[in-house]
Amino acid sequence: MAKEINTIGVLTSGGDAPGMNAAIRAVVREAISKGKKVKGIKRGYAGLLQEEIVDMEAKDVADIIQRGGTILQTARCMEFVTPEGQAQGAEICRKHGIDGIIVIGGDGSFKGAQKLAALGINTIGIPGTIDLDISCTDYTVGFDTAVNTAMEAIDKVRDTSTSHERCSIIEVMGRGAGYIALWCGIANGAEDILLPEKYDYDEQALINNIIEKRKKGKQHHIIINAEGIGHSASMAKRIEAATGIETRATILGHMQRGGSPTCKDRVYASTMGCMAVDLLCEGKSNRLVAYKHGEYVDYDIDEALAMTKSIDEYQYEISKNLSR
Ligand code: ADP
Ligand code: F6P
C-alpha cells in the first residue's frame, strides 16, 4: 500500500534560478489545499542537516511569485554526498515528521533526492537551473528568464559594438552546456556562437570569419562564447592582434541568475510545483517532474539521471545560416 503523506518538506539546492519562488509557492499552496502540512527546509541539504526547518502557511509564500532567487535560500553541501550525511538527513526528516520531500534543483540535487528515497523518505524533484542541462526535460525553471536577461544585455553591448565598429565577445553562463549560448546566439543575431558541445578550438577559422564579414560590410562582430569554453579576455586579445579590429570581452556572469521571472517561468514552475505535490499524494517517490515534447510528465529519477541530451542539431545548423 502506498505510504500516506501528511507532511511535505520543500528545499532548493544548487544554483538558484528565477522561478524557484513560484515553485515553492505552488508546493505550499497545493499541499495546503490537499490538507497537508508543509515544512520549508532552508539552505538545501546543508539546512536539512542543521535542522533549519520552518512551518509554512499559505501566507508565508505571499508576494514571492514575482521575485528572483529563492526565499528558502540555497547551498551546496558536501556532507550530504556521504552515506553518513544522507542517513542523518533521513533521520532528521523522520524526527520532524516529514514523510515526503520536494527537491528543486539540478542533477546533483536529484542524486541527493535519490538517496533519501532509498532511505524511505518519498522524494520528488523539480528541475530548477538556468543551464537547461537536465536530460529528461525540455524545460528547466529559470532558463527562460536567464536567456531573456542575457538577450537584453547582449542587445546593449551590440549597440556600442556597432558604434565603435568593434568585435565583441560576450560570455554567457551554462556550466558545461551551451543552451544559453545557442539561444542567445540566435535571438541576438550573433555572427559566431561558440558552444562547448561543438567548438573545435580552430581560432584561425574564427579570425578568418571576422575578417571576411568585415569585408562584406558588417559594422560589428558579435561572438557569443559559452562559459564552458571561457577564456574570453585572452581570446579578445588574440583576435584584436590577428585582425586589427578593436575587440572587447564582456562576461555577463551572475546577473543571468537574478531578476523577476518571466511569465513562462512563473507558469511552468507553478505547474511543476503542483504536480510534485500531486505525485507525492499519490504515493509516488524517486520521481522527477519534467516537460517533454510539449507535455508535463514525470520520470523515475534513476532513469532520468541515466539519460543524455545534446544540442539540437537543426537549431545549431540554422544558427550558422542566420549569421551570414
Ligand atoms: P545542481 O543540483 O544544480 O546540479 P550541485 O551539483 O552543486 O548542483 O548539487 C547540489 C547539492 O546536491 C550538492 O551540494 C550536494 O549537497 C547534493 N549532491 C550532489 N551530488 C550528490 C550525490 N552524489 N549524492 C548526494 N547528494 C548529492
Ligand atoms: O548552474 C547554474 C550556474 O549559474 C552555472 O551556469 C554556472 O557555471 C554556475 O552555476 C556558477 O556557480 P556559482 O554561483 O557557484 O558561481
Describe, in plain words, how this protein is organized in 3D.
This protein is an alpha/beta fold and 324 residues long. It has helices at residues 20-33, 44-49, 83-95, 107-118, 143-163, 179-187, 203-215, 232-243, 263-281, 301-306, 313-321, and strands at 7-12, 37-41, 53-56, 100-105, 122-127, 167-172, 192-194, 221-226, 247-251, 287-292, 295-300. The strands form two sheets. It has a seven-stranded mixed sheet, sandwiched between helices. Strands 7-8-6-9 form a four-stranded parallel sheet, with helices on both faces. Helix 1 links the parallel strand 1 and strand 2. Helix 1 (20-33) packs parallel to helix 9 (263-281) and helix 5 (143-163) crosses helix 6. The protein starts with 6 loop residues before the first strand and ends with a helix. Adenosine-5'-diphosphate binds at residues 13-15, 45, 76-77, 80-81, 105-109, 111-112, 115, 129.
Order of helices and strands: EHEHEHEHEHEHEHEHEHEEHH
The helix/strand class is alpha/beta
Ligand inventory reads: adenosine-5'-diphosphate, 6-O-phosphono-beta-D-fructofuranose
What composes the largest sheet? 7 strands, mixed
Shape: elongated
How are strands sequenced across the largest beta sheet?
3-2-1-4-5-10-11
Number of strands: 11
Please outline the helices and strands.
Layout lengths: L6 E6 L7 H14 L3 E5 L2 H6 L3 E4 L26 H13 L4 E6 L1 H12 L3 E6 L15 H21 L3 E6 L6 H9 L4 E3 L8 H13 L5 E6 L5 H12 L3 E5 L11 H19 L5 E6 L2 E6 H6 L6 H9 L3
Parallel strand pairs: 1-2, 1-4, 4-5, 5-10, 6-8, 6-9, 7-8
Antiparallel strand pairs: 2-3, 10-11
Helix pairs in contact: 1-9, 5-6
Bound molecules: adenosine-5'-diphosphate and 6-O-phosphono-beta-D-fructofuranose (F6P).
The site of adenosine-5'-diphosphate has 17 residues, from helix 4.
